[in-house]
Amino acid sequence: MTGKINAGRFFEDFKLGEVIPHATPRTITSGDTALYIALTGARNPLHCSAPFALSLGYAQMPIDDLLAFHIAFGKTVPDISVNAVANLGYADVRFIQPVFVGDTLTTSSEVIGLKQNSSGKNGVVWVRSTSVNQDQQPVLSWVRWVMVHKKNLAAPAPETVIPDLPAFVAAKDLRLPAPFNVHQEIAVATGGRYFWEDYSVGERLRHPAGLTINDSDHTLATHLYQNNARLHFDAHLMQSTPQGLRLVYGGVVISACRALSFEGLENALSIAAINGGTHANPSYAGDTIYCMTEVLDQWTLPHPQLGALRLRMIGLKNIPPDHVENIKTSQGYHPNVVLDLDYTVLIPRKGN
Amino acid sequence: MTGKINAGRFFEDFKLGEVIPHATPRTITSGDTALYIALTGARNPLHCSAPFALSLGYAQMPIDDLLAFHIAFGKTVPDISVNAVANLGYADVRFIQPVFVGDTLTTSSEVIGLKQNSSGKNGVVWVRSTSVNQDQQPVLSWVRWVMVHKKNLAAPAPETVIPDLPAFVAAKDLRLPAPFNVHQEIAVATGGRYFWEDYSVGERLRHPAGLTINDSDHTLATHLYQNNARLHFDAHLMQSTPQGLRLVYGGVVISACRALSFEGLENALSIAAINGGTHANPSYAGDTIYCMTEVLDQWTLPHPQLGALRLRMIGLKNIPPDHVENIKTSQGYHPNVVLDLDYTVLIPRKGN
Amino acid sequence: MTGKINAGRFFEDFKLGEVIPHATPRTITSGDTALYIALTGARNPLHCSAPFALSLGYAQMPIDDLLAFHIAFGKTVPDISVNAVANLGYADVRFIQPVFVGDTLTTSSEVIGLKQNSSGKNGVVWVRSTSVNQDQQPVLSWVRWVMVHKKNLAAPAPETVIPDLPAFVAAKDLRLPAPFNVHQEIAVATGGRYFWEDYSVGERLRHPAGLTINDSDHTLATHLYQNNARLHFDAHLMQSTPQGLRLVYGGVVISACRALSFEGLENALSIAAINGGTHANPSYAGDTIYCMTEVLDQWTLPHPQLGALRLRMIGLKNIPPDHVENIKTSQGYHPNVVLDLDYTVLIPRKGN
């Protein structure tokens, strides 16, 4: 019998307003941070130099924003998306406070929207997930929505509630690190000469480096995040799919693009928000990921030495960014586009 | 000259009662624990959440039982099994006390049995290996037996001594974590709703998840354990074998199965013993491992809140567990069975 | 536009005497040390047993010499060798003091030599790189020289200055760990019975173990070192090269050989210097690395219990060392030789 195997929730199991606690709280270690560098090639000194982090005013070195996000997110998979037909989107991802080695993250999700599809066979579930540290302080919060199968087709459709989601996290809602001392040596530690004032809306950065994904590294990363979605790990299962291969977890692609875009965005020290994102095409082992950035907006902040840039991160596979002009046409995405992510970074201002 | 290369012990080099100290003491770090999660996908909160471990009464978070075992075991390879024709079995594996980050493990082995084979070309050696921490307290103890070549065929046969080994570690011999506070929040942290009373002898759990092994990840794991058996690492050497491929270390398969069996055994927090095991067929990179569990026995313990389950862990390759009915027939093991392990876990009882 | 992408320095951008600070200071963690063991199979107890390190007189366990070197070296790549036509050589690599978990390494390079080639299209740049810890104490120093493209062919040739480099780091210049207590238990911890007096000049050690490199593990290692040279990571880019494959970073081969040569050099606890080295042929994923050692010289030291051995480390691919007699002929290197490294180790003396 397999009655003790948790089959996960089906559409009719989600109730509006319900809060679902997720299993496997996770204490972050320096092993996680070293693995993250090895898996992505990240070179942001804020996450690999303790003296640099201290010089900015941090009490200790914070871990990479995306490492925290992937670990927090991974916890939601068994309860939210194990029976998902599709991961439809995410929005309003807020990096509320830094995460440090030694912190323990625990994630829960509140059901904030439900809409049964007209077929009656599945529906869309919106959840707001929040990850708190050991002091119960929220460190990350995000909304995602997934299409989930019904198991019992006779179950009544719930009242349709579609949450009102912001197109992007407004500048006033960004949580700034405090005190954050901008100083002259930042450019030495990052190797980057460009600051907030140097970027302009509409500007495109074609980051030249590429990163080829292999089966071991994408599965190591996804396991590190304790994301247990089977399609990333089970090659035998995936043989029966059209592509016949394990799918690379979208978070692996996001992290690859973040690391690749270090060249040209060296001083974009922190991610403050992810406003939305689309995994336009799947990635598989063997694909080489490239990245292009477009500056969407440029905001001052209530901090004299920091500004924000709203950026569009375009992930490409197997084509360098200087060979791609149109990301999207009326036909949809360019077939080599794997990621279209709208996010906001904090970046020091010049002349302070 | 290669006279300084340690060729390892041959059958005639083992003397009954001799204690062999093994090289390379190892201090456990949080890097080891992070890598273990990345390599296996382990989600047991006892080994990844410090607050959870403390809530149970542990002084700090213990490392995964199998991580400790593989590291302790790896040390014995250069002295015991480098000239082995075959690893014949192991028994009486006792997890005596938890291992923590910062502990240093040192392993030694006592020769407890010898039997020259009738061919006169090799013989069987039984050793009891013990791993102690920096305070010289035993943390792990196990018996294994290997068939080893003779180098000098003229060496006299030793007196045959075959040790008396228990079929399983009896409930009274299991070392319990003290104090171990069972509490209501365990199910939240593990995500599992089933406790000791919920399982019944003869019950089978067909864990649905699969894990495909790749060359990088199995060699990273085996290197992490500092197990230097060449057949796991040297593809050039292995080209001349029938399969032509590097063999996956059996411990990698055991850890994969333990992680895969989390779904359905979420509250089986600790391994107390391994009673015996067979690697029924070899595994290679590209194989997808699945796992099935059979409940062999169910014991109360001298602890009001803990029980023990004796379990059979069946590892399969390239076939999901719901497609396998007969693990073993009169012809021997099903060709897709890679592991048949008899082990004992500690699991909280309900209603405390 | 890609104007913000750092294109790296061209030949005419290097000025004699200039000191170039490199980005991305790095705090060493126990995650780095665990990954180094997993990536190489290193078994030297000095770097994996804290009690052993303390017994020798170290204040804490030092990290592997080559892990420190690769991390320090990786920082120079974006500024020095990103436009290199060829990495021509390195010399005078000094391991000045041990590096510990918690140390932060920062590297800078001084331009100590320049020579424009007769073609006028490129030139050779010599730099002395120094890595300091958080107390600004030098821990590593080395010279390398690279051939770099000119971007502006009209730029005037600099005055030719070729630095005077030692053929090897002399015994009197080796920095010894202090106090370094040699004791009887070293052989137990290393598993090696041979000490300084047991080796003789001209002796060859044919280390039997082989290590097959895979794409994930070599890219994980190179990313861990934050070496961002594209030819190691970008398979799409490398498809247009004659071999069509990502190149394995030379440091990965050096570390593989160091770990493989543990069998026979168990007591060669520390690397004191690298005198020079050649990557005779490239390595690719799928290659199996083997190693052979030749004893070049044998020095007493101003320490009663330590001696030095100057060694030649020959790295081979896809051929075991007992099948190779002539490393180099008048035709050049044997086609399976990948590394010819001249280095110096510290090794305890007997009878102390």
TrEMBL record, chains A, B, C:
The lineage of its organism: Bacteria, Pseudomonadati, Pseudomonadota, Betaproteobacteria, Nitrosomonadales. This is MaoC family dehydratase. Transmembrane segments: none annotated. It comes from Methylophilus glucosoxydans. It holds the Pfam family MC_hydratase. InterPro entries: HotDog_dom_sf, MC_hydratase, MCH/BMMD, Thiol_ester_hydratase_Rv0216. Gene3D superfamilies: Hotdog Thioesterase (3.10.129.10).
